[in-house]
Amino acid sequence: QVQLVESGGGLVQPGGSLTLSCAASGIAFHIRTMGWYRQAPGKQRERVATIAWNGNTDYTDSVKGRFTISRDNAKNTVYLQMNSLKPEDTAVYYCNYGSADWGQGTQVTVSS
User: Fold this and answer.
1) Which long-range contacts (C-beta less than 8 Å, at least 24 apart) are formed by 61-64?
2) Strand pairing category for 46-51 and 106-110
3) Where are the alpha helices (H) located in 2-99, listed in sequence order?
4) Which residue intervals of 67-107 are DSSP H helices?
5) CA 76, CA 110: separation in Å to the nearest integer?
6) How much is the pLDDT for 95?
7) Which of 3, 15, 12 has the alpha carbon at shortest distance from 107?
8) What is the pLDDT of residues 3-31, one digit of tens each?
9) Where are the beta strands (DSSP E) in 8-110?
10) Which of 4, 12, 60, 112 fits 16 for a cystine, CB–CB 3.0-4.6 Å?
11) Which DSSP helix (H) or strand (E) runs through 85?
């Protein structure tokens, strides 16, 4: 049974930082491209960042230079380090590997 469990969200002031984690089980994690996605209220879910099995990364333009995706294959976990957060980063953040099934996500709220 595949499980993706996101954690680490919260309320942070503009300019602050958060690190999200996603623990995966039931998949061959080490060969999967993993991604972080987000969905803001009233908007479609969008891709934030991806990391391939070999460590190659890709980011959407709005987070380049602020967010860093990484992975620990020994722990079947993917991370998203988020710095210089802006109110427009407010969303529910999800991880996925291309499955049609999504986890619960973790809420990130950037507000003063």
Assistant:
1) 62/88, 63/89
2) unpaired
3) none
4) none
5) 28
6) 97
7) 12
8) 999 999 999 999 999 999 999 999 899 99
9) 10-12, 18-25, 34-39, 46-51, 57-59, 67-72, 77-82, 91-96, 106-110
10) 12
11) none
> Rounded to an integer, what distance in angstroms lies between the CA atom of residue 56 and that of residue 105?
24
Chain segment 33-63, per-residue pLDDT in tens: 999 999 999 999 999 999 999 999 999 999 9
Amino acid identity for residue 19 in this structure: T
| Amino acid residing at 62 | S
Q: Is the pLDDT of residue 1 over 90?
A: no
Among all chains, which residue has been given the structure tokens 């967010």? 67
Q: Which two tokens stand for residue 50?
A: 């991806």
